[in-house]
Amino acid sequence: MTQDVNLIELTAEIVASFVSCNPLPAADLPEFIWSTYAALAALHTTSVPAARQRAAVPIEESVRDDYLVCLEDGRKLKSLKRYLQRHFAMTPDEYRAKWGLPADYPMVAPAYSALRSSIAKRHPAGAIKPRPGA
User: Fold this and answer.
1) Is residue 105 predicted with pLDDT exceeding 70?
2) Could you tell me if residue 98 is inside a domain?
3) Are 8 and 37 in contact (CB under 8 A)?
4) 11 lies in a domain?
5) Is 68 helix (H, G, I), strand (E, B) or coil?
6) How much is the mean pLDDT over the chain?
7) Residue 31: which region, alpha, beta or left (left: phi > 0; alpha: psi -120 to 50)?
8) 72-85 in b/e burial notation, b at 16+ Cβ within 10 A?
């Protein structure tokens, strides 16, 4: 039922948009509506099986101390999150799900994470410094 409602709504949007920009005789409108709906329904029912993409490297070799290897294209990176979003429009959770990775799969190389952690511990963000003379 929900699929039919979505197809009807999509059909209405497409027809309204088309008719607002193109002259169409009133007698042809029912046929145009039906053919638009039928085309959408055909698109919806025919599904093309997605080809299973192979990882650029074996998953076991994708996490190194100094870098992570992107399974999408094999690029070596210190941090995956921004790269995935920018190049593949993918969130870390979508990436993990696509490749069957565990929820704790790192998005930052271990050595880089340790370096950033040590810097943060030496210079705590938001620490209130006492004012001179206060």
Assistant:
1) yes
2) yes
3) yes
4) yes
5) strand
6) 86
7) alpha
8) beeeebebbeebbe
